[in-house]
Amino acid sequence: MENLPPELQKIVTDFSYCQGQEKLEYLLELAESLPPLPARYAGKQDANQVHECMSPVFIYAEQQDGQVNYFIDVPPEAPTVRGFAAILHRGLNGRSPAEIQAVPNEFYLQMGLQEVLSGQRLNGIGAILRYMKQLAA
What is the pLDDT of residue 59? Predict the structure, then answer.
């Protein structure tokens, strides 16, 4: 699909090879790859929460040399949300604000996540991407 940064496109393609529960297993595997939040953001959650998510999700962005770097905090008790956060972290980190804005809000439908996640969970996932776009703007 057009408008996806290469790393994000690769993840979407990887999901297309998974069937049924394999998609959920891959999402949970990716959850393990989300890097820990840097200490400089500890205790600064209030202003950076994605309120549309049922799980507590906090996102921080730093822009340097025309690139956005994200730092995301999702508790281990929310592995599916953590997995999606890891996908966005891997797929959007180091990208320009324009590249981030160009990502379709529902790109995750190409991954088939609607087959294994509830609508409420998918709404939260969409909210994470929208919040990341806000921070990049």
Answer: 94
